[in-house]
Automatic annotation (TrEMBL):
NCBIfam families in the record: pyridox_kin
Source organism (scientific name): Megalurothrips usitatus (bean blossom thrips)
Catalytic reaction(s) noted: pyridoxine + ATP = pyridoxine 5'-phosphate + ADP + H(+); pyridoxal + ATP = pyridoxal 5'-phosphate + ADP + H(+); pyridoxamine + ATP = pyridoxamine 5'-phosphate + ADP + H(+)
One Pfam family recorded for the sequence: Phos_pyr_kin
Keywords annotated in UniProt: ATP-binding, Kinase, Nucleotide-binding, Transferase
UniProt key word Transmembrane helix: no
Pathway: Cofactor metabolism; pyridoxal 5'-phosphate salvage; pyridoxamine 5'-phosphate from pyridoxamine: step 1/1; Cofactor metabolism; pyridoxal 5'-phosphate salvage; pyridoxal 5'-phosphate from pyridoxal: step 1/1; Cofactor metabolism; pyridoxal 5'-phosphate salvage; pyridoxine 5'-phosphate from pyridoxine: step 1/1
Domain Pyridoxamine kinase/Phosphomethylpyrimidine kinase: 147-313
Family named by the database record: Belongs to the pyridoxine kinase family.
Name listed for the protein in its UniProt record: Pyridoxal kinase
Signal peptide: none
Gene Ontology cellular-component terms listed: cytosol
The keyword Nucleotide-binding appears for this protein: yes
Amino acid sequence: MFRRLQSSLRLDSRNVNKLVGPQGLLSLRPGLCGRSTFIVCHNRTVCSSCSKMGHCSPRVLSIQSHVVSGYVGNKSATFPLQLLGFEVDAINSVQFSNSTRYGHWKGQVLAEQELVDLTEGLAHNGLDCAYTHLLTGYSRSKSFLTHIANIVCQLRQKNPGLTYLCDPVIGEMDRGIYVPEDLIDVYKDIIIPIANIITPNQFELGILSGKPVKSVDDAWEAIGILHTKGPGIVVVSSFELDSTGPLICLGSILIDGKTERAMITFPRLQGTYTGTGDLFSALFLAWMWQTKQNMQQSLENTVATIQAVLKRTEASKTGICSEASIFQHELKLIQSKSDIEEPQVEFRAVPITL
Ligand SMILES: Nc1ncnc2c1ncn2[C@@H]1O[C@H](COP(=O)(O)OP(=O)(O)O)[C@@H](O)[C@H]1O
Ligand code: PXP
């Protein structure tokens, strides 16, 4: 219905009162920024001033890395989010020539004051009033990460319904912690409590919950602990029982005081890839919006797209010189456009009752 509305109506103050969907009149409320009228339709809020320009989309502020060559951070997240209907406003927390996986890179790191300047600029022009989502990933500095909490407050003042997805990037099972250790307490004490959705991997789940996670039962227990800290949605992006077996994703959502859980198991592919965690959180955010918070479907679609991207990445390797080997692991994202738009689900998520 929402899509039909989008295509059939150009919303302005003259026709806004005529909005009647099959399920009745849609509600109207004044924009919090005072500049526009918002149309609330099936829990989605449409800014009438944006609609005049032909846009009717969720809008995400994505604060992540940028690389000139390759796909991590915002380079990994932006294209899929856009394909799945999101306006994406990107703040680049770093601008590097390439991902740090190459071992050598050059570029700039966005200072905390520069982050403040960018968000002040947005606020000055009322451009911060239309965000429905905030997405953050890899952060290397305590002050930068702490400032993200201020941004969450700023955006929630404008839109109390803002969904904040935090990927708490801390480390991995085989690599250990790869961010400054003082970030951990910032995640625990400041960021996790204000996030709606978090997407830790198995290692990060253990660190953040304070419990080592070796079995699936451990994982559900740790997820339960993280729910009590704040986030209503906890998704473990990758979990393994041993280093050669299949990979598992676990998702848990609190709905009306009850917890719904789902789990999906799929084969591990040979090879290591960069930017998959960033792709995961972007896809999951988009599918939770697209499916109106259907955990099973969102997990299935997210995993289906990533597996298709990884298989295409594998298939396109040529096996030439070693300098090119990391480059050859760069995600074949653009070539996977149709797998992003219409994922072919091979691995089903199963509901879990504890
Ligand atoms: N070797 C692999 N085989 C299959 N899928 C993988 C592999 N590596 C990553 N993925 C996919 O990427 C997703 C994110 O995993 P990962 O990169 O481990 O996340 P994170 O960066 O949060 O640790 C997983 O859910 C999985 O779908
Ligand atoms: C600059 C940079 N390099 C590399 C990576 C890749 O991280 P991973 O190895 O977890 O895919 C990231 C993650 O966002 C990044 O920001």
